[in-house]
Each structure stands twice: as C-alpha cells, then as structure tokens.
Amino acid sequence: MSTAASIRDTLSAPFTLANGQVVKNRLLKSAMSETLGTGDNRVTDSLITLYKQWADGGIGLSVTGNVMVDSNALGEPGNVVLEDRRDIEKLAEWASAGKSGGGLIYMQLNHPGRQVPRFLNKEAVAPSAVPFRAELKNVLATARALTHGEIEGLIARFATAAAIAEEAGFDGVQIHGAHGYLVSQFLSPHTNQRTDQWGGSPEARRAFAIALIRAIRAATSPGFGLGIKINSADFQRGGITEEESMQTIVALAAEGLDFVEVSGGTYEAPAMMAAKKSTREREAYFLTFAETLRKTLDVPLIVTGGFRSGAAMADAIGSGAVDMVGLARTVAMDPDFPNRLVDKGDIRLDIKDLRTGIAFVDKIAMMELLWYERQIHRMGAGKRPIPSEGALKSLFFYALKNGPKSLRRRRA
Predict the structure, then answer these.
(1) Strand extents, DSSP E, 270-336
(2) What is the tens place of the pLDDT at every residue in 99-128?
(3) Which of 35, 264, 387, 398 is most deeply buried (CB count within 10 A of its CB)?
(4) CA-CA distance, 227 to 199, in Å (whole number)?
(5) Domains of the chain
(6) What is the pTM of this model?
C-alpha cells in the first residue's frame, strides 16, 4: 500500500513529453467547456481569471475547454471561436494566465460536427447523414454529409487555429477526438458510413485525424506541442470498438503526437457523466483499456475519468499504465486540489451526488453539466467554488439566467 510520502513523490515528479516539454508534475487539467466566451464567441477576461486560479492551484498541464474552429459550427453558446488573429492580445493574456503557476497550457481545438443544438446553428455537418435517436431529434437536427472540399477546408481551419495559438503563447494544442464530436464521428463506424477516402475501413476512418495532425505539424514549430483526446470506445451499438480504437491510437501516435489522453462516450452514450455510483467508487474508469494500450503505445499516455484520490492516481502511474492523470470535476470543485495532492499525497475529494428529484433532469444527468458549469463561472468571476451547493439551487440559478427553455438535453 502506498504511503503518503510515496504518493507525493509520484505525483510531484516532473514528466517530459515527447517533444521535450517538461510538465512540473503528473496532473493534467482535462478540458471542460467553460461557455465563458462573448455572444460573438470572443475571448473574455473571465477565461483569463479562471485559468489564473487553476494555475495558482498547482496544475502541471492545463488543457482549455473546446475552442471551435468554425463560427458556423458551435457546440453551445459561449464557445470561443478561433478563425483569425482578431483576439491575439486576449489569447496571449489567456496563455500567460494559464502558465503563471509554472505549468503548461494547451488549447483544445474542436468542431462539433452533428452534435449541435438546432437553435444555435443554421445546419449541422458530419461525415455522414446519420440521425439521432427519437428522443434527441427535437433538439438536434440530422446533419448533412460533408463534401470532400469541405473536409479539406476543415483541416485547414484546424491548422490555422493551431498556428494562431502558438503565436499567442500557448505551449501546444489538443485535438478533441473524443465524446462524439467531429473527429470522433470520423473515427466511428456508427457515424462515418462513407465509402470514399474518408471512410469504409478503419484505415480510411482515421484518415481525417491523420490529416489534421499532419496539417497542424506543418503550420507550427517543431517544439510546439500536439496531443489528442480520444475515446476508448463509443459505448453504443455499431460504434468504434476498443480493439479498433487501440489500433487507431497507435497509428495516430506514429504521426508525431506528444501525448494521448484517453476518455470515452458520446452525446448519445455519455459514459462519464452518467456513470453509476459503483463505477465512480472504482475510480480510473478507463485504466484497464490503458493497461492494454500501454503494451503497444510508446508516447505519453493520460487517462481522464474517475480519479478522486491521490492513492489511486499514484497507483495508476506507478503501475506504468499511465504517465499522468487527468482531472476535471475535482478541479472545478476545488482549484487547489493539485497543490493539496502534491503537498499531502494521500487525500481524496469525493464527487457530489447531483440529484434534484426532478425525473427528466436526473434521467439525462443534466446536473453533471450544470452544477460544474456554475462553479467554473464563479471562478471566472474571481470567486471560489461552493462545493456544498445543492443541485436544486444550481438548477434554479441556471434557469433564472437562461430561461425555462434552457432546461433541455445538453452537450456531452
């Protein structure tokens, strides 16, 4: 059994990424959508304040919430969109804030594909025109299939955004290839039913992600960081299997990735947000997958999902299965959690049971998004999270701010 001292030693040990960048400890803040952009999707002071809190809290590597590469394709209101240099000064402040505690900051780049609300976008695009199941069709329209020219245009958008992120001072970018967004849609046989060069076989389904990696590498400096967040599986019928996902990850890593972050699930099958109590108590949701993947993957590997205690984190790292651990809900509850882990080692932060007693809200795990979003917004305003705040209170404030119609199925 690990001692407090051994846990501290493990979690505080510096780690070198594949590109030579040194992370001061083994703790990564995984991307969480902040929804703190302006109405026209620009960077705000709230984002700068938020990431300063996380930097002061001791995180080794921060990954921002998803920054969209196309203003016509938004996942939710308040997304930041990066298409040009119009916000270069604010982007530089954001990067500086994220690094102010001695850690690194990567910008997550994303396109939602088919996972877009009807009210927010004129249309949705995806690899193939695959409809959502019946209960989601009133919220999410069926996307049309992208043309070959449009796919090439999206690849260029990712590369442009990465180049601007580097200019602004970010240490790297992370491609969002998980949770059912566009890159994940290309990888999954459920949502990619194409028969051209972009689909029809595992090799063709991963061609889009490979093209993104190559384009970003061509548009940025050799030392600029590039990672990917990717699903272990889709957890739905006809989706990508763990076996294919492993093969894909190894193929993508060979293109020059500096780290791989493993997660899981999609909008239709939210593996992490709707996790059962027994799953949460187990910690490290995707560790078994990582242990198998580790045998064939030679780039740094990170697992996000379920970690609550220093002991579990240190055990996962000490086993060799992962090199770092990803934190999300825990640092939304307590931005100082990384400092406390490094200082004390054997501590634990339990996740709240966020049930309201309102059947349709609890059924779709809505509070798993709204409660943490509210705490993130508090930090963006320079305040501290309120870990003791009840689910009903958070729901009330959300409805007050956004209106009753906002109480609908949210993003993954």
Answers:
(1) 301-304, 324-327
(2) 999 999 999 999 999 999 888 888 999 999
(3) 264
(4) 23
(5) 4-406 (3.20.20.70)
(6) 0.93
